[in-house]
What we know:
Layout: E1 2-4, H1 7-15, E2 22-27, H2 33-45, E3 48-53, H3 73-82, E4 87-89, H4 93-96, H5 115-118, H6 122-137, E5 141-145, H7 149-161, E6 167-171, H8 191-196, H9 199-212, H10 217-229, E7 234-243, E8 261-269, E9 272-279
Parallel strand pairs: 1-4, 2-3, 2-5, 3-4, 5-6
Antiparallel strand pairs: 7-8, 8-9
Helix pairs in contact: 6-7, 9-10
The protein binds adenosine monophosphate (AMP).
The site of adenosine monophosphate has 17 residues, from α2 and β5.
Amino acid sequence: MKICKTISEFKNWRNSNIHENIGYIPTMGALHKGHLSLVASSKLHCDKTVVSIFVNELQFSPDEDFEKYPRTLEQDLKKLENHKVDVVFIPETSEIYKSDFSILINELDLSQKLEGASRPGFFSGVTTVVSKLFNIIEPSYAFFGEKDIQQLIIIKKLVLDLNFNIQVVGCETIREASGLAMSSRNQYLSDQDKKDASILYETLQLGQNLLKKNETVGETKLQLKSKLQNNKKIKIDYLSIANSTTLEELRDNVKLKNEKVIISAAIFFNDVRLIDNIII
Length: 280
Ligand code: AMP
């Protein structure tokens, strides 16, 4: 497995693999089975698989966990080696953002909703770094998790709007046996909290059942909020039932017909921010 720390090192490798189908998985490290499932999809579809590990400061607000975000590089590299990844790109911040860096890539619509409303600047950081990484890696395919469904939708739009010649592939959310979606931030939770936090997925599943039983969006939301609020360790950031293309909230009096919707939520579980979703 080749490890590249600089853009020029990576470009050297890329130039000698110019005709290969490159599959690419951008990550922030602290790798778990969710990340590794994206690697497995890439290995299945592509000649060569590239993973980047880069904790992107630009997508963290000053009051978020950039400094204490889990960094487990040695274990990450072992996992990637075991999964037969071809190249790992692990640039320093200064390699990606020069001191006079002054251009951002901003999505203006989808990025204002849900995660974007709660975390101003977050998607600007994501679309900017992903654009830069796409230009560096020049992949044929890029793999993103449905766990971060809004991010996946925005990256698909980024590729369309900026004419990247890249196929974006969405991969299903990998979960613990309890149903809790795997996340690097789960490391902040105790074992008991991890068990209790599975209530987030249970709540989304309840939402799916209610909507399928013809309950209105408004009544469904009330029941889901009340289920979450029963647990004193939980503070709801948002709970959404939205159109899966526009991310517009469905009106309270709507009953589901054939449209594709996303039920999503962000909660603070003992101050650890968790997100999850179900696509119906
Ligand atoms: P991150 O390192 O959190 O930036 O995530 C890197 C990629 O892994 C993103 O495309 C995520 O959506 C994806 N990912 C994270 N957790 C999971 C999961 N539990 N299942 C599937 N994909 C995931």
